[in-house]
Amino acid sequence: MLTPYNTALVVAGTDEAGRGCLAGPVTAAAVILPKDFKSEILNDSKLMSLKNRNSLKNTIEDYAIGFGVVHVYMEEIDQINILNASILGMHRSLEKLSVTPEMIIVDGNKFKNYLDIPHECIIKGDGKYLSIAAASVLAKTYRDSYMEQIHEEFPMYNWKQNKGYPTKEHRKAIEEFGTTKYHRKSFKLLPDQLKIEF
């Protein structure tokens, strides 16, 4: 079972979803949970069932002291690169919090200072601390919902299923139909097609 980070502090957990995708935004969330928040099923969102993620999304939004979710879109990712876009998204989600945290805990190993609030980067933090796991659930559910909406516009890429990740099916569709306004143009969308012959 996951634990709170430090019950003496007002702690915001932050995480992102969609960093490795070829299409769609990177989505970041920040969550401050009450000190007595408990959940038997909350975990790293990637390890949870769709049903549990969706029911927890509502629970988190109902019980959180504050939460913020933002998309950073393809054009911005292409301009500033995916790492900077992920950190920017986390900063923007923290800006949306109605309460200023005393500590920020971040999933992963890269972050930039935000408002001089102390922060700690925690590798696999979404499987260790409740507030990061909660942020991972919000980031993933909001992003998945966005990808399901744009699937209607371009069903041939099957974003409803692959959510923009580089599956064989997604790459095959890019090869066949080309790219869309939702693809990240700075990403390597197709494997190299040229082979060096000796």
TrEMBL record:
Protein localization = Cytoplasm
Task: Report the GO terms under cellular component.
Answer: cytoplasm; ribonuclease H2 complex
According to UniProt, the reaction catalysed is:
Endonucleolytic cleavage to 5'-phosphomonoester
Q: Which residues form the RNase H type-2 domain?
A: 9-198
Its Gene Ontology biological processes? DNA replication, removal of RNA primer; mismatch repair
Give the matching SUPFAM superfamilies.
Ribonuclease H-like
Q: What is this protein called?
A: Ribonuclease HII
- Similarity comment text for this entry: Belongs to the RNase HII family.
Task: Kindly list the cofactors needed.
Answer: Mg(2+); Mn(2+)
> Could you tell me one molecular function GO term of this UniProt entry?
RNA binding
Q: Tell me, what does this protein do in biology?
A: Endonuclease that specifically degrades the RNA of RNA-DNA hybrids.
Alphabetized UniProt keyword annotations:
Cytoplasm, Endonuclease, Hydrolase, Manganese, Metal-binding, Nuclease
Q: Which domain of life is it from?
A: Bacteria
PROSITE patterns xrefs: RNASE_H_2
Binding of a divalent metal cation, residues: 15-16, 107
Tell me the CDD domains matching this sequence.
RNase_HII_bacteria_HII_like (cd07182)
Q: Supply the EC number(s).
A: 3.1.26.4
Q: Does the keyword Transferase apply?
A: no
Q: Which PANTHER family match?
A: RIBONUCLEASE H2 SUBUNIT A (PTHR10954), RIBONUCLEASE HII (PTHR10954:SF18)
The gene behind this protein is rnhB
Q: Cofactor note from UniProt?
A: Manganese or magnesium. Binds 1 divalent metal ion per monomer in the absence of substrate. May bind a second metal ion after substrate binding.
